[in-house]
Design goal:
Elements (H helix, E strand, L loop, with lengths): L2 E6 L8 E5 L5 E5 L11 H5 L6 E9 L6 H12 L8 E8 L6 E2 L1 H11 L8 E8 L3 E2 L6 E9 L2 E4 L1 H8 L7 H16 L36 H7 L10 H9 L4
Helix pairs in contact: 2-5
């Protein structure tokens, strides 16, 4: 049986500045320290319009491994129902060459992001990076394969090649459905779920399984991390939604 896991991680010893190109192609130095914090630390900034009234999501993908347009549309719809961003949510995409690695550690992924990311917080815009990789996570085991990791306050990675290998198996969910579950789940961790930057209004954390919800039909339930559990959640091919307790937490932290 193929086990599937979502995960989240924190960051440390990260750079404070980066050199990127402006709209004219000229190099500029930007302060990136606000995008180098721990997962969930910017939950309120993502949810509310207090500090940022616009969200830009930079999708960075290896050639041939771009997420489906339907999955990105699903993500935007998902977030529009949760975030107070009166100036909108935009998704921009960047194709990059493969780093040529078959296995990636979190350090590898952070270093890659530092090299290729272009979108950072600016004025009233908050930016999120999502990298779609070939290769697999170095924490995989013979019985478990990681599909996604939220590893900084505005960063997540999707192991797209692994997702495609799983979605291609008999009776598996469609690629769009599986991508949407993984992407939305990881974004849930960026929004501080569960009890990871967004305070619970009532106790619903499944502490035995980390930062997850104890409602078995919720997008943030831990069985979304196992092959059989994920298949059970996807009965009928629909993506699980956040349960009422998770929605109450997000609303209390500045969301809709």
């Amino acid at each position: 049986m193929l086990l599937l896991f979502f995960s989240c991680s924190s960051d440390s010893n990260s750079p404070d500045t980066s050199i990127i190109e402006d709209e004219n192609g000229d190099p500029v130095t930007v302060d990136i320290s606000a995008n180098r914090k721990s997962t969930g630390e910017s939950a309120n900034e993502l949810l509310s319009d207090k500090d940022f009234d616009k969200l830009t999501i930079e999708i960075i993908y290896i050639e041939g491994l771009a997420p489906s347009e339907d999955s990105l549309d699903n993500l935007k719809t998902f977030l529009e129902g949760l975030l107070n961003k009166p100036f909108g949510i935009e998704i921009v995409q960047q194709q990059i060459e493969s780093p040529g690695k078959s296995v990636f550690s979190i350090a590898d992924i952070r270093n890659l992001e530092d090299d290729v990311r272009k979108e950072y917080n600016d004025d009233k815009k908050i930016a999120v990076s999502g990298i779609f990789l070939d290769g697999e996570y170095d924490m995989n085991t013979d019985s478990g394969s990681v599909l996604g990791v939220a590893y900084r306050n505005t960063s997540f990675v999707i192991f797209e090649e692994t997702i495609r290998s799983f979605s291609g198996q008999p009776l598996s969910p469609s690629l769009e459905t599986l991508e949407s579950v993984v992407i939305n789940h990881e974004f849930g961790h960026l929004l501080g779920l569960v009890n990871a930057g967004t305070t619970m209004q009532v106790d619903h954390q499944d502490e035995e399984h980390g930062r997850h919800c104890d409602v078995d039909t919720c997008l943030m339930y831990w069985t979304a991390e196992t092959g059989e559990g994920l298949l059970n959640m996807l009965t009928g091919g629909s993506v699980p939604e956040l349960d009422g307790q998770c929605l109450d937490d997000l609303k209390a932290n500045g969301g809709k």
